[in-house]
Amino acid sequence: MLPDRQQDSATILIIDDEPVALRAIVAELTALGFETLIARDGTDGLHKAERGSPDLILLDILMPGWDGYETCQRLKSRPATRAIPVIFLTALCDMTQKLKGFEAGCVDYITKPFDHREVLARVSAHLQDRHLFARMAEQVGPPSARRAALIGCDGTAPKGADQAGLRLLYRAIDLLLDEMADPPSLTELARRVGTNQARLGREFQTHLGMSTFEYLREQRLVRAQELLDDTDRQIQQIAEAIGFKRAGDFATAFRLRFGMTPREYRRRHG
């Protein structure tokens, strides 16, 4: 169970086209001091997530209109909602479906039929660390299949998510995002967060399923996408702002990640 302070402040958004089936969970969450919001489809869920800023989202997969995967992807594409942890509630137990869920950006999976106590325990666990998970969830590219492959049909989360390791990772991510244009070397980054290069590299692989360099590259391209959407900066200026010295190198990396050049992206989304 969460400490009283977190219970009083946390809001849970449930997106499910059959909310009656979740009535018992809603009642228990309310009794524990959580505020709950209910949405019957993905469109309504996205709207309520942007307006209500929930601390966590429980999301069904099989819904009319946008399914859970598309809803999650849309949540992760919006600056106002991308940091909100999403837990899928679903009867789908196939590994391919689970991998698809993590590719869409979820942080956990609970398969139906589920025990209400399991739902409450997982909600509590993610909310206790929401300041850490939120930072990770800012990625448009979610953890790789290596992390997802550790999740079995029983919904068990990966082992070894120690708090000390997560805090090292959190500090390193802050530095990389703050100094994206001219980031420290891995050795210097490790020194500044109080560990060594090997340990820091292991934490990135364990918790994010990618190397420090891969994470930085992903965040640079995500930031570039935001700048293309929200500013009128020239392509070269955006490249330099995220740490690419040459616009050609930036265009190549962007095309590999998003399937189009920065100029094509701006034309399509401008």
TrEMBL record:
The answer on whether this UniProt entry bears the keyword Signal reads no
Tell me which GO cellular component terms the UniProt record holds.
Answer: cytosol; protein-DNA complex
Keyword DNA-binding appears in the UniProt entry = yes
> What Gene3D superfamilies would the database entry show?
3.40.50.2300, Homeodomain-like (1.10.10.60)
Keyword terms: DNA-binding, Phosphoprotein, Transcription, Transcription regulation, Two-component regulatory system
Under Gene Ontology molecular function, one entry of this record is: phosphorelay response regulator activity
Residue ranges of every copy of the HTH araC/xylS-type domain listed in the record: 170-268
Q: Which residues carry this modification: 4-aspartylphosphate?
A: D60
InterPro entries, alphabetically?
CheY-like_superfamily, Homeodomain-like_sf, HTH_AraC, HTH_AraC-typ_CS, Sig_transdc_resp-reg_receiver, Tscrpt_reg_AraC-type_HTH, WalR-like
Domain Response regulatory stretches: 11-127
The protein's name is Response regulator transcription factor
What organism is recorded for this protein? Thiorhodococcus minor
Q: What is the lineage of its organism?
A: Bacteria, Pseudomonadati, Pseudomonadota, Gammaproteobacteria, Chromatiales
